[in-house]
Amino acid sequence: MGSRRRARECALQMLFQYDLSQPSLTDLFESYWNELTELKAEHQVDVPNFANRLVSGVINHLAAIDLLISRHTEHWRISRMAVVDRNILRLAVYEFLHEPETPRAVVINEAIEIARRFSTPEATQFINGILDAIKRELETTTSTPPSPPAAPSALR
User: Fold this and answer.
1) Within 10 A of 141 (CB to CB), how many other CB atoms are there?
2) Domains and CATH numbers, the chain
3) Which end of the chain is more exposed for a tag (fewer CB within 10 A), N or C?
């Protein structure tokens, strides 16, 4: 498993913990990393750094992330979703919005793989559908700068 996926899984576990007890970020990071003993030596720096960045970002942008998710979930309030599923969605939407170096298709694939590991078989379709709809919305609202107008024919 790659270090990015491992970091996302760690971030999901921290977001799950945050969702249930809402500790401070300092307490959350300290308790999580002190309890985790299974990181391979080559992942001991990059995994915590990326995971902490993701968790901080999700928590700092939670209202905007939840609003975007709720626009694409018919008949599902965020608070009624399974804790794991809503945090997989939050993590992916944060990456869509604030981690542009990761292609959105990769973010969706990672979210689905994490859902396969931590959630139910039905969750993969639910998460895929919502993230795909959000991705499409972001692609239509994030337009590229317009091309300069063509020179009038008299000037050509």
Assistant:
1) 7
2) 3-141 (1.10.940.10)
3) C
